[in-house]
Amino acid sequence: MAEDAVKRAAEMLLSGARMVREPCPYCGGVRVMRAGHAFCSSCGAEPEAGRAAPPADPGSPEERLSALAARLASERDEGARRAILAEISAITARISGSSGS
Ligand SMILES: [Zn+2]
User: Fold this and answer.
1) Do 18 and 34 touch, CB atoms closer than 8 A?
2) Which are the contacts of 5, defined by CB distance < 8 A and separation ≥ 6?
3) N or C: which terminus of the chain carries fewer CB neighbours within 10 A?
4) Residue 66's domain spans which residues?
5) Is 45 domain-assigned?
6) What's the CA-to-centroid distance between 38 and ligand 1, angstroms?
7) Which residue, 97, 92, 41, is CA-closest to 68?
8) pTM recorded for the entire structure
């Protein structure tokens, strides 16, 4: 489960990391930040690895899906993969649900 993520977050805090004010964009969990690198203690997502760009701008659902698929392909962390998959299914559900208008 997310035990590893919690353990890793705790280790980061012990070694000088600090809590991030904004919750995880994927699961709303608590994140810790060290050297510009945020790590979610709940789902293990690391959206700010490299650049500070959480999926803030929505874009079109199709754009988001391809971006998420690309992330999923390069993501090795189980928790993060599950968060991405959850987001993908949420988007596809929204697309198929709002095809009326
Ligand atoms: Zn998270």
Assistant:
1) yes
2) 39, 40, 41, 42, 43, 44, 77, 79
3) C
4) 61-97
5) no
6) 10
7) 92
8) 0.43
